[in-house]
Amino acid sequence: MPGRLMEPDGALIPFSTEVDVPLYNIQHGVKLPIFRIFVSWSRSNLLQVACIRPFEDDFNNEEDTGTSDGGDLGGKVVEVKLGASDPQISEAQRRRIAYGSVSPFAFLQGRKNALAMMSRMSSSSFGDWWQHVLEYSRSILELLENTNPPSRSVIEDPRIVLKLVNKPTGLKAAWQLMEMFYVDKHSLTWLPEQLVDWVAEYDCILSETEVTVHSKLFKLQEKLVNLQVIEDDPEYWEALSSALTVGWLDAVVKLLRLHGSYQLNQMDSRETENGLVEAVAVLVSTMPRLRHDLPAGKLGQCYKTKPDFIKAWEKWRGQITKLDCSAFWVHCGHRQTREGLRNLLQIMLGNMNNISNASFHWMELFVSHFLYIKPLTMSFEEMHRLAQKCLQLKSSSLSNGLTRLIVGALGENIEVVIAECSKSFGPWYGMKCILLMITHALELLAADSNQNEILFSERYNLGGISIVELHRIVYAQVLFSHSLTSQIAPTYLASCPKQGLGLLEISLSRQPVQNYTLILKDLEICRLYELDKICSFVKKITGMHQWKHGRKGSGIYWFQKAGDESRLNQIAQQLFECIGSSNTNETFKQWEGLIELLGPDVGTAGGLGFLHRYRDFKNSLRHVQYGRATDTARHSVELLIQLLKSPSTPQLLWLPLLHDSVKLLNWKDRPLLNAAETNLLLSKLQELSMLQLLPDSPQLDLPPLELASIRLALATNLSRAFLEE
Amino acid sequence: MADSGDLQLFRYPQSKFVDAVRWLHPVSAFDRFIATAVHDTDDASSAVEIHSLSFSPESRNPNKPLLHLRSNWPSPSRISALRTSETHQKHVVAAVSTFAGSVHFLFVDPVDVSIDLELSNDECQPMHNGPVSAVDLQSGGHECVSVGEDGRVNLVSVGEGRLDSQQLHDNRGLISYTAVRWGSQAEFATGGFGFGLQWWDKRKPGGLVSQFKGNWDQKNTTGIVHSIDIHPSRKHISVVGGSSGTVFAWDLRWQQQPILLSGVSLSGTGRSTCESEIWEIQYDIHAQTSSISSTSSTKILPVMACSEDGILAVIEQGKPHTELLAEDCAINSFNIDPQNPADVVCALEWESIGILMRAKESASVY
């Protein structure tokens, strides 16, 4: 059965169904009861859920629960994919944006710090700071572009009124809005025209399901190929008026020139009609616009200053009124043309009814106000009120993220903007994209110095960090969750003054250690941010991992690099236990290699120094076996005495040493140990036997037979040494 | 995307992590192929992909070569190393090693770069216990040496319908090897932790001929060999790239005195290109073409190195380094085209392939 957690009996954690949370059904197929659930992140946005049943033994004790009918599993791990598969931005594309946005962000932060330093020294202000942010914003905008460039056809088809481009992403639309409102100080003076441009670019994504001017024109364009008498079709006139309301002047003029009266064979009979169409087309193309510049190919007349514009506007309006009242309309025989053209004139005159009928989405209605009703710049407050009104009039249009973003921005409520960004882009792009977006968008918002207070003030309810820092931290965590993006997360954490480094330390110490190249990459980050503690921590973990997997050499290497003396000592301890017990050639080679690895500076690693001496002793002892040279045997004795005198030699090793000494004690040619040396050995043997009697001593395994043979050899040697002396 | 003057870098986003890149040796001078080892994190799959490189005058930037995926071989595990050899019996051979401890040979048709045959070792007896850290293919393409962190050195050769492997050495994890490179038909060099280097001869019992313990790395920094290169005309010298920006040359004639080319030595001297890991190094045949005949045999020829902090540079003994690239992300691997030594392909950390084109005639600049 599907794991329906909503059912009260199956619910592991109680939650109320009223809260609107996304629910994921898990087909775990494990028989109830489940007693433990482990949740962990897997690659990308996969969540691994492990459902574990109680132990079978405990289970069988309960009589009423059935036993092994199919539900034999002790548990199961299920993968859950969070977030619907993204229609607009794939995971790989999202990562590409994440990579690309790092450098501009780091660059901007660097500039900010440099400026802050400068202003501290020379008290110069952040006057043109916004221009730096604008530069940053443009580079991000470039990233948000759809990758494929639009195909350009060489021959311009007069029937193509709408250029077919790749659908722009909503992210880009939102980004551009933010840039318009918060960064570009130049644009604020001609914000209305900016909004008109914005609608022209993004009208196609304003609504997925409902009619927009774009969809209307798109439909007409498909029909155009088959239409014979275009002006008889009501859709032609509807599309014309719609395009005009949102100010797509070039599309309007293009469409008007497709009017049947332009055809050569009809020129004579429809002269008046053609004159009227052309007059309207000319009026449309000479519409005065209050803006900095017009991109090439766009129609209208551009005025930079208000007085110039007002003059031209009055004149233009006068021409429209004149044409509207002219007598030629009576002579125009074609009813549709007459009505359609007059409708266009009414729209240009700012007739609210006509405009409202021709527009669909509230944004379209909104921008038409700037074009035809109140072309002079309004205050934010007025715009906000207007937006509310348009929303009411076009209440059928669903409010989406972009809508709320605009209203929030016009309402000068930055908190609403942030909240809307995070909330409403959710269903569109999946969580990671929003975070990416917001983290960077906050940089834009911060360009507006009025907002700095809100964004950068530390808040008690956020644990003492600012809104900006909160979002950077969350974003960095998301980046850390993916193995490929984890490398870029530190850039964001480094710009979090309060909790950034702390989180960086935690995240770095949780990175996987299976692959040594990845570890080196992490260590590189530690080095850059001077996290020496984490550096040695990571090395220790790596050493442990390598040691456990039998790669003893690299394990020791990492421990040495980490300066982990306690573990190195443990290893040495282990080494002995195996050396003390077995003495075959093979193991000797193995531990000789290990000692080699432990290096010459083992003195620093605590009690490992004796290991080297022990190795030397063992080596010389092996030579003694082959040759019969007394000199080498005497050398062995010296090593043995050194070992036994050294306080670092553990007691564990004494017995094997004494055992080895028997061979030297029984040297045939002459006694190798003098009386004092023999006494030292004897006292060690005595100490060992005494230790065994102590109640809290470590349990030493001293076979009595062996002890006796050592004692005998010692005694014999002592007597020989006396005789010698 | 053009960089300054004579250098042009073109980036090709892959949407997959690029583990390694190699040029494939073509039969005709007009074809250019690149083999890449990629890892897709979305579905945790790995593959070898072979791309063709071509120029199209119609594209937006006619200078930018186009990269087309031509064939693809799915790998059972993530790829740790990729090497290609010259044409061998009508095929180009690519050797691939994986994190699962296996080695595979791919026989690629040199004309249409389809993968004709794939040979791997016996699955029941993995050659390495754990990941294979490096492989190197003999120039003929019939034999390959593989080393691993488990301390094994294996010789792999083409057998009847599968690969035959012979264990040359096994130290049971006492020494981990991280790099390997053939020096001649029978000799090769390996490298590992602590800048340790070994010279092997497969004809000798046990194989090991001589070794170097480079214990000069400081306490806090790691000293791991990542890459070795040996010039065919100077077999006694191995150039080595590793941690902390270290590049040095190990001359078999003066074994205990390595020549530091870049990085910081114990005495604190030495010029440093960067302080981060040098992931791969290779003799820069482009810079050598002019100088190889005139230089004495003791002089180290110029080498190219790529690093974790995104630098691709040409390092020459006694001269300031020439920085070719300074990227925002790590350059994990690169390869100089043996046919057109001016061109370099590199694997960038941010899931893309970069192709760097240097001016062909200005070799004497370096």
List key phrases describing it.
heterodimer, A: 725 residues, mainly alpha, 3-stranded antiparallel β-sheet, two-stranded parallel ribbon, 5 strands, 60% helix, 4% strand, rod-shaped, B: 366 residues, mainly beta, 4-stranded antiparallel β-sheet, 1 helix, globular
Topology diagram in text:
The complex is a heterodimer of chains A (725) and B (366).
Chain A: E1 36-41, E2 46-52, H1 56-61, E3 75-81, H2 91-122, H3 129-144, H4 170-183, H5 191-202, H6 213-224, H7 234-245, H8 249-256, H9 271-285, E4 288-290, E5 301-303, H10 306-325, H11 328-331, H12 335-349, H13 352-358, H14 362-373, H15 380-393, H16 401-410, H17 414-424, H18 426-429, H19 431-445, H20 452-456, H21 467-480, H22 489-494, H23 500-509, H24 516-528, H25 532-548, H26 552-562, H27 565-581, H28 585-598, H29 609-626, H30 630-645, H31 654-665, H32 675-693, H33 704-724
Parallel strand pairs in A: 4-5
Antiparallel strand pairs in A: 1-2, 2-3
Helix pairs in contact in A: 2-3, 2-19, 3-4, 4-5, 4-16, 4-19, 5-14, 6-7, 7-8, 7-12, 8-9, 9-12, 10-12, 14-15, 16-17, 17-19, 19-21, 24-25, 25-26, 27-28, 29-30, 30-31, 31-33, 32-33
Chain B: E1 8-13, E2 17-24, E3 33-40, E4 45-54, E5 66-75, E6 79-88, E7 91-98, E8 103-108, E9 115-120, E10 132-137, E11 143-148, E12 152-158, E13 163-170, E14 177-182, E15 187-192, E16 197-201, E17 208-212, E18 225-231, E19 234-242, E20 247-251, E21 259-262, E22 278-283, H1 285-288, E23 303-307, E24 311-315, E25 322-326, E26 331-336, E27 343-348, E28 352-357
Antiparallel strand pairs in B: 1-28, 2-3, 3-4, 4-5, 6-7, 7-8, 8-9, 10-11, 11-12, 12-13, 14-15, 15-16, 16-17, 18-19, 19-20, 20-21, 22-23, 23-24, 24-25, 26-27, 27-28
